[in-house]
């Protein structure tokens, strides 16, 4: 399972890194979104992978910390997901505005000379 | 203890006054003056009342813990020396307020003036009574900042801006040096407390770091006190309003430097380094300042250079290292403050009533303003050092001290001559000031008809001149005890016996004084004709200006070098920058692994769950596909990206993170809708046209591909290694154990977010709110590109279909588009709200919470937009997302602040379970209120972003309408 997920993270990072080096703004937006998936998964996996141990405690029995997955990375990632949405939105709007102002969707705001 | 608290009051009063003054209306000149004057006189009275406690070497202290873990305390400490300065700051401060009331024009923005003025006073006050060197450095920098604001008060004037900037640059750099010097001292002594530092003189002087510390501290003190070679900022600061000059350059700002030198005198002085550095700076300043002052044509310029020279005198005295010289220095600080403040005010009156400060134009004013003239004459006599005035006393002491042999070096031998020459120059410029301005023929073509100023504008000068006289005639019984308190505070056991009497017999200092008088008057007579007409500035040296050198340096550093660096290393293109960032990150990540020679175990294929692996095969294909398709097939790329998102979401479910899965799923929906809305405005890209197939292009792609593969492989490696390493001890156990007993919730992730780490969450929602507002602001000015304005292809096809059929009207198909889903979406609205409420309420105990509920609610609104269109929704529903954002932030903040009322730190939560009819037991923690804030903000931010983009379609309708009318107009002409 660890191998599967780490390969998955690797693929997401590879695709993301490829995309953010592309010249078109839309590619960069998609690239950043893929990178944010990868980073969220990476941080999340710091708590190690376990099934069916969600950090929701049962009040009727005494809490045994080893019976739950680490909640801290989850708390970190939860806000990161929402912030990730916000930055994607911001970047999308910046690219729309740049497109409106410069007339091109090249990341530098002008088409390269050939 | 009351006395100690009075010290706090001394600092708080001016700062509070500053805040109040800033809020008064712009034309409230009288209210401002009453407020400032009242506060200042109270501060003066408070200071005066402290005298008995400090009279005989006593010290009043007030300590507030600041950063106790670093041994830093906010210590206030008043001894005789600080008291003397406090008296000057508040006393002269009050007189300046009174003067400024009449000086400032009703057209000037007075609230700003008094606000800055009081803040400056507070900073200065804090500087002199701080008992901790770090605190002192902070107040020191505050004085630099507020003096910048005061000097640049008339910011429409280029000279004021330049002068202010120069003063700030020089004193600010000095302040930073001072801070470093203080840190070294703290390192040597082991404490920043002034008491400890003053007690460790020998330790500091014998330490290896003494010289660097001394150099750095001198940088601070000499820049502040405008000592050569840093003197040139002071004349440029004369662009300030005259009350500011009178205050900053007599009693406060520039005195801070010599104050510091005197304060640390017992610790730092007495070494050869001290004598040469301080002595050389002081003596050259003394001479240069006095010489330059003679040749100024601007009244304030003359006074500025004379101030520089007098500060040089004080510095020279402090350099000598003998206790008697220190007494003279302290005495002269006091005397200079009184006569220079009054002279600046007199110059301001002349400027105010005659309309110019140019000495070539001014003449014979004594007939127009006899009282002011008399006062100015007495004050400049004090400046020249005429007997029976206070300036004479300290100048005699100075002459006497220069005659003493302290070190037996060349510099020492020259001192008496330098002192006499500087004394002669002082006489020359003082005589020139009086003779040119007040005597001679009546002035011609002055901008205004000169006359006496309003009575109360003159009162401050009268008071100061009276002080000069009284101190000059009967020093022993007037100023004696106060000076003694200051001297004892600085010198302690080394306090010498000194005499303040006016007549010391016919001795060498008196001869030097006489020589200076005669020489000075002769020099004036010799130069008189030349001065009456000459250009402003010193002969031969006019072009050698410190100011110009300073500007050259600034231009070189901040423009030439910066340009060179930019052209050598910079690029405005994004791709190389990103490539570099990614590459450096890769190297930084790989470096430790390679260096440590880490060899991982061979991963085993055992234990791979086939279902999970299959899911990730899909995920991987989605990621690669999105990367492949993003250029030409945007929609496909978006769908594939969503696929990768869903796989991420499933992964969260798989590995026990229901909260994350829920949030990810909801965010996935809004992200997709968001990008879908944006797609409309991007230019078309046709595959055949711009496929770069040049060899350079191909090479670039290979390089990027290599980088991407390396990064991907590296991240996969790091993740694998990390996931297979055993779980170390972490803080998680604490959260798991205490979530219920302390946070009152069973969903630990949510408890962490809204309770344990509530402050982080607060920061995050603030970021979210800011992003949403930024999006809104950016799109407000957005104009779609011309080629995107047209009706989308799909709608054109549908309209064409209507056109062909005789039974259909054009637009009918577009209107009926997705009718059934629309109805369902509209019906879903209440259900979505209910779902959001459900997610919100269960959040503390089960997966859900403010973030998830907020996005769910936002999706509810979003569906209405999708179903009915922007106009339809906005005719029926006013959403006001900005209010939601504001409410959310305030809710979260007030919940946090609420805990203060009960004496707990920010965001401490309280909880209990309450029974609500029909719903059951609901946890009502204050954390729930905080979560409500999160919820409201997330709704507002998400909806605001999406609506802002959706509104662009309405814009394009409008744009089309405008295009259409433009196209029609020429036709109308034909009709």
TrEMBL record, chain A:
Chief location of this protein?
membrane
The domain of life for this entry's organism is Bacteria
* UniProt-annotated location(s): Cell membrane
- Membrane topology designation: Multi-pass membrane protein
Entry's transmembrane regions = 29-47, 75-98
Signal peptide residues are: none
Which controlled-vocabulary keywords does the entry list? Cell membrane, Membrane, Transmembrane, Transmembrane helix
| Pfam families membership | Oxidored_q2
Q: Which PANTHER family match?
A: ANTIPORTER SUBUNIT MNHC2-RELATED
In the record, the note on similarity to other proteins reads:
Belongs to the CPA3 antiporters (TC 2.A.63) subunit C family.
This protein's name: Na+/H+ antiporter subunit C
Q: What species does this protein belong to? A: Neoaquamicrobium sediminum
């Amino acid at each position: 399972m660890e191998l599967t997920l780490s390969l998955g993270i690797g693929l997401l990072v590879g695709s993301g890194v490829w995309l953010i080096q592309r010249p078109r703004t839309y590619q960069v937006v998609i690239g950043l979104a893929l990178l944010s998936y990868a980073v969220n998964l990476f941080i999340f996996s710091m708590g190690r992978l376990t099934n069916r141990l969600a950090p929701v405690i049962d009040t009727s029995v005494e809490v045994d910390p080893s019976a739950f997955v680490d909640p801290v990375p989850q708390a970190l990632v939860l806000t990161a997901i929402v912030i990730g949405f916000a930055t994607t939105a911001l970047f999308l709007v910046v690219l729309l505005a740049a497109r409106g102002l410069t007339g091109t969707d090249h990341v530098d705001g002008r088409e390269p000379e050939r | 203890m009351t006395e100690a608290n009075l010290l706090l009051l001394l600092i708080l009063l001016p700062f509070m006054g500053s805040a109040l003054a800033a809020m008064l209306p712009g034309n409230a000149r009288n209210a401002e003056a009453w407020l400032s004057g009242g506060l200042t006189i109270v501060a003066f009275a408070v200071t005066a009342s402290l005298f008995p406690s400090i009279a005989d070497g006593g010290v009043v202290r007030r300590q507030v813990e600041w950063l106790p873990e670093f041994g830093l305390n906010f210590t206030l400490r008043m001894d005789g020396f600080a008291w003397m300065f406090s008296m000057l700051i508040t006393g002269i401060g009050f007189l300046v307020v009174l003067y400024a009331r009449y000086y400032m024009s009703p057209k000037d923005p007075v609230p700003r003036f008094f606000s800055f003025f009081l803040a400056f006073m507070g900073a200065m006050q804090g500087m002199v009574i701080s008992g901790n060197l770090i605190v002192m450095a902070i107040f020191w920098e505050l004085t630099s900042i507020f003096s910048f604001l005061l000097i640049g008060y008339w910011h429409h004037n280029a000279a004021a801006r330049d002068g202010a900037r120069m003063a700030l640059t020089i004193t600010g750099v000095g302040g930073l040096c001072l801070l470093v010097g203080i840190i070294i001292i703290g390192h040597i002594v082991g404490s920043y407390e002034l008491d400890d530092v003053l007690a460790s003189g020998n330790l500091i002087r014998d330490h290896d770091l003494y010289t660097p510390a001394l150099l750095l501290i001198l940088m601070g003190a000499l820049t502040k006190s405008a000592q050569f070679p840093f003197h040139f900022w002071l004349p440029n600061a004369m662009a300030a309003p005259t009350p500011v000059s009178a205050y900053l350059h007599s009693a406060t700002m520039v005195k801070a430097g010599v104050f510091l030198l005197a304060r640390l005198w017992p610790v730092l002085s007495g070494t050869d380094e001290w004598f040469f550095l301080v002595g050389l700076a002081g003596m050259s300043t003394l001479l240069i300042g006095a010489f330059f002052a003679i040749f100024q044509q601007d009244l304030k310029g003359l006074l500025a250079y004379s101030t520089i020279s007098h500060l040089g005198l004080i510095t020279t005295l402090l350099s000598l290292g003998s206790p008697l010289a220190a007494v003279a220095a302290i005495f002269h600080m006091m005397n200079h403050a009184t006569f220079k403040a009054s002279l600046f005010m007199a110059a301001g009156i002349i400027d105010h009533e005659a309309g110019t400060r140019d000495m070539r134009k001014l003449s014979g004013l004594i007939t127009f303003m006899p009282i002011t003239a008399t006062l100015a004459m007495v004050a400049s006599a004090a400046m020249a050092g005429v007997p029976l005035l206070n300036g004479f006393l300290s100048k005699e002491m100075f002459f006497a001290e220069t005659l003493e042999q302290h070190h037996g070096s060349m510099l020492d031998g020259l001192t008496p001559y330098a002192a006499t020459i500087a004394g002669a120059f002082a006489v020359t410029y003082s005589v020139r000031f009086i003779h040119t301005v007040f005597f001679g023929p009546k002035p011609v073509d002055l901008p205004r008809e000169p006359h006496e100023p309003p009575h109360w504008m003159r009162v401050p000068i009268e008071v100061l001149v009276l002080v000069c006289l009284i101190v000059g005639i009967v020093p022993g019984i007037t100023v004696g005890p106060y000076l003694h308190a200051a001297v004892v505070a600085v010198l302690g056991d080394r306090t010498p016996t000194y005499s303040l009497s006016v007549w010391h017999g016919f001795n060498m200092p008196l001869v030097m004084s006489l020589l200076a008088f005669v020489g000075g008057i002769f020099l004036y007579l010799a130069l008189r004709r030349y001065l009456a007409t000459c250009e402003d500035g010193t002969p031969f040296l006019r072009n050698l200006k410190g100011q110009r050198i300073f500007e050259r340096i600034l231009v070189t550093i901040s423009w030439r070098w910066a340009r060179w660096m930019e052209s050598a290393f910079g690029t405005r293109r994004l791709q190389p920058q990103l490539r570099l960032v990614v590459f450096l990150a890769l190297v930084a990540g790989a470096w430790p692994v390679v260096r440590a020679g880490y060899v991982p175990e061979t991963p085993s294929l055992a234990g791979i769950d086939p279902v999970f692996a299959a899911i990730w095969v899909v995920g991987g294909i989605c990621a690669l596909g999105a990367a492949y398709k993003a250029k030409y097939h945007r929609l496909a790329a978006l769908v594939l990206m969503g696929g990768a998102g869903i796989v991420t979401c499933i992964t969260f479910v798989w590995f026990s993170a229901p909260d994350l899965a829920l949030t990810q799923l909801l965010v996935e929906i809004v992200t997709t809708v968001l990008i879908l809305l944006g797609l409309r405005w991007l230019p078309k890209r046709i595959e055949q046209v711009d496929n770069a197939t040049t060899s350079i292009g191909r090479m670039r792609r290979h390089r990027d591909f290599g980088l991407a593969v390396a990064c991907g492989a590296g991240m996969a490696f790091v993740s694998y290694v990390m996931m297979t390493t055993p779980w170390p001890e972490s803080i998680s156990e604490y959260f798991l154990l205490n979530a219920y007993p302390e946070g009152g919730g069973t969903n630990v992730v949510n408890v962490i977010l809204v309770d344990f780490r509530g402050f982080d969450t607060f920061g995050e929602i603030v970021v979210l709110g800011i992003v949403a507002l930024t999006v809104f602001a950016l799109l407000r000015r957005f104009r779609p590109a011309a080629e995107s304005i047209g009706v989308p292809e799909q709608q054109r096809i549908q309209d064409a279909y209507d056109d062909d059929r005789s039974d259909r009207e054009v637009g009918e198909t577009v209107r009926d588009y997705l009718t059934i889903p629309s109805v369902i979406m509209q019906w879903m609205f209440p259900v979505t709200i209910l779902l959001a409420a459900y997610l919100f309420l269960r959040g503390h105990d089960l997966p859900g919470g403010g973030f998830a509920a907020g996005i769910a609610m936002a999706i509810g609104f979003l569906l209405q937009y999708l179903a009915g269109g922007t106009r339809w929704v906005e005719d029926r529903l006013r959403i006001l997302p900005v209010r939601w954002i504001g409410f959310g932030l305030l809710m979260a903040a007030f919940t946090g602040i609420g805990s203060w009322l009960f004496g707990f730190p920010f965001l401490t939560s309280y909880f209990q379970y309450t029974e609500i009819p029909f719903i059951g037991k609901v946890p009502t923690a204050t954390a729930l209120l905080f979560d409500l804030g999160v919820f409201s903000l997330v709704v507002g931010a998400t909806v605001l972003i999406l609506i802002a983009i959706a509104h662009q379609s309405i814009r394009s309708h409008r744009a089309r309408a405008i295009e259409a009318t433009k196209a029609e107009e020429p036709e109308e002409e034909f009709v």
